[in-house]
Amino acid sequence: MQTWYKERKRQYDLPFVILLKLETAMTTAIEQIGRSGLHAFSSFLDTLAFAIKILARMFDVRAYNSAVRMVLINQIYFTSVQILPLFLTVAAGFGAIVIGIIGQYLIHLGLFDYFGQLLMGFVVTEFAPFITVLLIALRSSSAVNAEIAVMKVNKELNTLHVFRIDVINYLFLPRILCGILSIVLLSWLFSIVVLTSGLIFSALLFDMSMNDYVTVLLVSANFSDLIVMSIKCATMGFFIVMIPIRYGMRATDELTSIPVSVLHGMVNVFIAIMIIEVVSLIVMSLIEKFI
Amino acid sequence: MRFYSGGELLERELADIMSQEERRLGLVSLDAPLISNLSVLSNVALIKQYHGHLSVREAEDIVKMGLKKLQLEDIAEKRNPVLLEEQRFCAMVLRAVMVEDAVVVIDRPFKIMPDLDDTSFIRDVLTSVDDLFQECHIFDYLWNEERYTGGMIHGA
Question: Which CATH architecture best describes the domain B2-148?
Answer without folding.
Answer: 3-Layer(aba) Sandwich (3.40)
